[in-house]
Amino acid sequence: MNIKQILKYGIKRLKENGIKDPILKSKIVLSNIIKKNKEYLIIHEDEELDIEILSKYFRNIERICKNEPIQYIIKKQEFMGIEFYVNKDVLIPQPDTEILVEEVINICKTRF
Question: Model pTM?
Fold first, then answer.
């Protein structure tokens, strides 16, 4: 299978399971496995992938289908411009948390 084919499969599987943003999640999973950016996937869509990559990709897509957060699968999450390591033992930073942290920083600036 090449990059284009495997992404098509992943998108279809995620859609079948009612997963939001299937195109983005499919690309994030593959990008993480092959350690390339999403643009690489577009430019090299005909590149054949080895069985080890395919196997890992299929497993990760199935984990998402079971509603496991993608952050736990790729083991990272950006928060306030910093990339953090995450796993099932930590809470995943959310956008509303970023707003809260920014407000706390603003309050501290005016008081100290």
Answer: 0.84
